[in-house]
Amino acid sequence: MEQVLRPSKQGILLSLHVVPRAARSEIVGIHGGALKVRVSAPPAKGQANAALVELIAERLGVSRHQVQIVSGETSRRKTLAIHGVSLQALQERLGVVLPHQADYT
After folding, report:
1. Domain coverage including residue 62
2. Where are the alpha helices (DSSP H) in 45-86?
3. How many folded domains does the chain comprise?
């Protein structure tokens, strides 16, 4: 199973399963080896992607410019690159929803 968070040359990569048009925007937990995120915005015209970047940046305590979609722009499965923050810091900030690494590697 793929790791939810992993370091790379692009920054820290975060695997996501995104559900657009949800009742509210929130981080739900783990789904199929990815962090499951619901966004209230529709997928049309990149609205869900923009809402996703804003939600993740806010939750991780980074600016929106530090969060970049590197794959899956038109898919529910996405990979984000997070810049300017350590893997350990991201693990701590997402610790509530991430299982121990042994559980998802």
Report:
1. 5-95
2. 47-60
3. 1
Predicted pLDDT of residue 100: 53
Global confidence as pTM: 0.87
Q: Which of 58, 101, 51, 105 is nearest to 82 (CA)?
A: 58
**Exposure string (b/e) for 18-51, b if CB count within 10 Å is 16 or more?**
bbbebeebbbeebeeebbbbbbebebeeeebbeb
Look at residue 45 and give its three-state secondary structure: helix
Average pLDDT for the chain: 88
Reported as a single tens digit per residue, the pLDDT across 86-100 is 888 888 888 756 655
**CATH for 23:** 3.30.1200.10
* 79 strand-pairing partners: 15, 71
pLDDT, residue 91, reads 84
Residue 100: inside a domain, yes or no? no
Residue 104 lies inside a defined structural domain of this protein: no
